[in-house]
Amino acid sequence: MPSPNTAVSGVSGTSPPTHTPPRTDTPGPSLTKRDRPDGHDRHNRPAAPRKRRALRVPRAVRRAAGPVGLLLVWFLASTTGVLPESVLASPIDVLQRAVELTDTGELPQAIAASGRRAAIGFLIGATVALALSLTAGLFRLGEDVIDASMGMFRAIPWVGLIPLFIVWFGIDETPKIALVALGVTYPLYFNIYGGIRSADAQLIEAGRMVGLGRLGLIRYVILPSALPGALVGLRYALSTAWLALVFAEQVNADAGIGYLMSNAQQYFQTDVIVLCLAVYAVLGLLCDFAVRLLSRRLLAWRASFDGEGA
């Protein structure tokens, strides 16, 4: 005789429903480190301390900190009497004299005259240096003829050539421009020449394998490899141009920053002397800043080390 359960199953055609108790091992929503009051996560690990954002000072401010600090020390030394006015004028006196000479037009005219000499001398020296460095760097015969002579002439102090330049060119503008050109030639020549000769031989061989001729190798491999060295030489050449101009304008000059310095030396005007030196420094700094911008644009393809830290 069939069991009651079987009869019921036969009539309904389905098995009786079974009651499934709710699971008690299902994990509920876990509390995060922020939700837990003890600061621990669900694995009972202590929360990592939050890092405070360090205060970053802009690089422009850090670069200006050095000159501003020197000016502050100079001002304090002059104000307290540690630095007498007979030895070195105070920054306030120098600034007042700069305003006076600007109002009378003497300072702008002097800057224009010196800038014209520096520009002409730089163009002449850069042209000569570029021609000599390319000839010596690209051709062995040019190296044999030029490089040894340049190394020999570099050992001669170019400032000591001023009396000889006066004998050759007189006392007008020519010896001043020639001295600037000579000072520019050496750093440009040696840096461009060194950059050409430091080109990677494997890159040159790879260029030959892809079918580059001599002109193609020079244009696409050798000259780009020499560009970083050329820009370094350009920075040295610009600073040397202003340095040479300081000496050149001491020789019978009737205009320019050196002319103002010579007159101030006769009357013991230390404020004018310091002002002229400051003008030379600012002009050199502006040229160096321009070369830095040019380097960033021309060498954007080249990965370089920019230093560590913020």
TrEMBL record:
For membrane topology, the record states:
Multi-pass membrane protein
Q: Where is the composition biased (Basic residues)?
A: 42-55
Biased composition range(s): Low complexity: 9-29
Question: Can the keyword Membrane be found in this entry's annotation?
Answer: yes
Q: Where in the cell is it found?
A: Cell membrane
Keyword set, alphabetical order: Cell membrane, Membrane, Transmembrane, Transmembrane helix, Transport
Q: Basic and acidic residues compositional bias: what residue ranges? A: 32-41
Q: Which PANTHER family match?
A: ALIPHATIC SULFONATES TRANSPORT PERMEASE PROTEIN SSUC-RELATED, ALKANE SULFONATE ABC TRANSPORTER-RELATED, MEMBRANE SUBUNIT
Q: What's this protein's name?
A: ABC transporter permease
Q: Which organism is it from?
A: Streptomyces scabichelini
